[in-house]
Design a protein that fits this description.
It contains 14 helices and 14 strands. By secondary structure, it is of the alpha/beta class. It folds into two domains: about 230 residues, Type I PLP-dependent aspartate aminotransferase-like (Major domain) (Aspartate Aminotransferase, domain 2, 3-Layer(aba) Sandwich); about 130 residues, Aspartate Aminotransferase, domain 1, CATH 3.90.1150. The strands form three sheets. The chain has a seven-stranded mixed sheet, sandwiched between helices. A four-stranded antiparallel sheet has the order 10-12-14-13. The protein has a three-stranded antiparallel sheet with strand order 7-6-11, with no helix packed on it.
């Protein structure tokens, strides 16, 4: 392609105003939110209860609790499964920080597992080597909206008597062998944050089919009490409790968005599949891999730079700077592209310092830190991925259709067929001037 890159002043493939805002708001949202606004109870009431029932039915779970965040729902999963101080919990080395800090919330210790270089998910073949005598659970992160190899993971977990927790915060509607994310382990957490494929601004959902897990998680969710607010409460704390409930207006918004989710999902799948098909064969571009038994919800559509294919000879910091410049060039084409997560979790200060609560806690629990090694080089696939990926976010979401996906594909192709024109210092100067 001979067209000048938009970052250098050329015409963008997509005009900013062409991409519709996320999430779409219509009369359904307005009706339910206004109903909630005029209720006498703005705390937990009929909107919360209705949303929990509707979400459980939609996703195929026995129990659902509406929470104030996906992070809260993850903490509830740990408590539901009986994880406690000094226990070890396996989690992928590359994900959002909450996937691991939720483990610290209940004084347990994260044990990181490297990723599969093609799916970007926890590598099931590396799980058994990471299991310690203290390991009690594995958090399987269905990252970017793709499910991991759950048959293999569940078999390993059963062999070692581990609870399987799904971090499905990005995976609404994603399928593994025809089964939805959130139904593939002992319990699961979803997020309803602004960026998620199902959005309520903020919020989360805890789900399970196990009544005991549900009971334990419910105590943490509301002050350690055994009864929920809509039940007869004695206001007695029976366990350590937090306040993870949500309100009626947010629940009403969540209900409205859930009622349209099947349309959102179908649209995002069509747009993501269009990019996957129409960006094949571009030198220097590695596309996402989707196993045949999975359906991706395309929360993030991830592009990777194939440094070997383009003969890039720089070091790791050079790769990062080049990747950042390419991401800026893609974004300048009108595509909402960014580096989603720059660091692998073992690099983050809270894990390097091993000092979450002061005095080295919870690693200072006698015996808990034995064999725990957060040296980043132990996770080479995660490190490599963090240095070369670019995420396309929201551009593929409803109501944006194939006309937008087509222009997004044109913009990505334009940049990746002109990688030889990426001048890192020039682009860094341009980006700095815009701030």
């Amino acid at each position: 392609m001979g067209k000048e890159l938009a970052i250098y002043g050329g015409a963008p493939a997509l005009r900013t105003e062409e991409v519709k805002n996320w999430p779409p708001i219509d009369a359904i949202d307005e009706k339910l939110v206004m109903e909630a606004l005029h209720q006498t109870n703005q705390s937990r009431g009929p909107q919360n209860l209705a949303f929990e029932k509707e979400f459980a039915a939609w996703n195929g779970n026995q129990y659902a609790l509406f929470t104030n965040s996906g992070t809260a729902a993850l903490h509830m999963c740990l408590v539901g499964c009986g994880i406690g101080a000094g226990d070890h919990v396996l989690v992928t080395a590359y994900t959002w920080s909450s996937s691991a800090t939720c483990i610290l919330h209940h004084d347990a210790i994260p044990i990181f597992v490297d990723i599969d270089p093609e799916t970007f998910l926890m590598d099931p073949d590396k799980i058994e080597a990471a299991i310690t005598p203290r390991t009690k659970a594995v958090i399987v992160v269905q990252l970017h909206g793709l499910c991991d190899d759950m048959d293999k993971i569940n078999a390993i977990a059963k062999k070692h008597n581990l609870a399987v927790i799904e971090d499905a915060c990005q995976a609404h509607g994603a399928l593994y062998k025809g089964k939805k994310a959130g139904t593939l382990g002992h319990c699961a957490a979803f997020s309803l944050n602004q960026n998620k494929c199902l959005c309520a601004g903020e919020g989360g959902v805890f789900v399970t089919d196990d009544p005991k897990i549900y009971e334990n998680a419910s105590k943490l969710w509301s002050f350690g009490e055994t009864a929920r607010p809509e039940q007869s409460r004695d206001y007695h704390a029976y366990a350590l409790g937090w306040m993870y409930r949500n309100n009626e207006i947010t629940a009403a918004f969540a209900r409205a968005q859930l009622s349209k989710y099947d349309y959102y999902f179908k649209t995002c799948c069509a747009n993501g599949n269009y990019l996957a098909e129409n960006l094949k064969g571009i030198k220097g571009l590695l596309l996402p891999y989707v196993p045949e038994d999975c359906v991706h919800n395309w929360y993030n559509f991830n592009l990777r730079i194939d440094f070997n294919a383009i003969g890039f000879n720089g070091g790791e910091q050079d790769k990062i700077r080049f990747r950042d410049a390419v991401a800026a060039a893609v974004a300048a084409e009108g595509i909402r592209a960014a580096v989603w997560q720059r660091f692998i979790l073992p690099e983050m200060t809270v894990f390097q310092a091993k000092n979450a609560y002061g005095h080295g806690y919870p690693w200072s629990i006698p015996g808990a830190d034995e064999g725990v090694d957060y040296t980043p080089s132990r996770f080479p696939c995660a490190l490599e991925y963090s240095h070369k990926h670019i995420s396309v976010v929201q551009t593929l979401r409803a109501p944006n259709g194939l006309d937008i996906a087509e222009k997004a594909a044109e913009g990505i192709q334009k940049v990746f067929t002109n990688l030889d024109k990426i001048d890192v210092e020039r682009i860094e100067t341009i980006c700095k001037a815009k701030k």
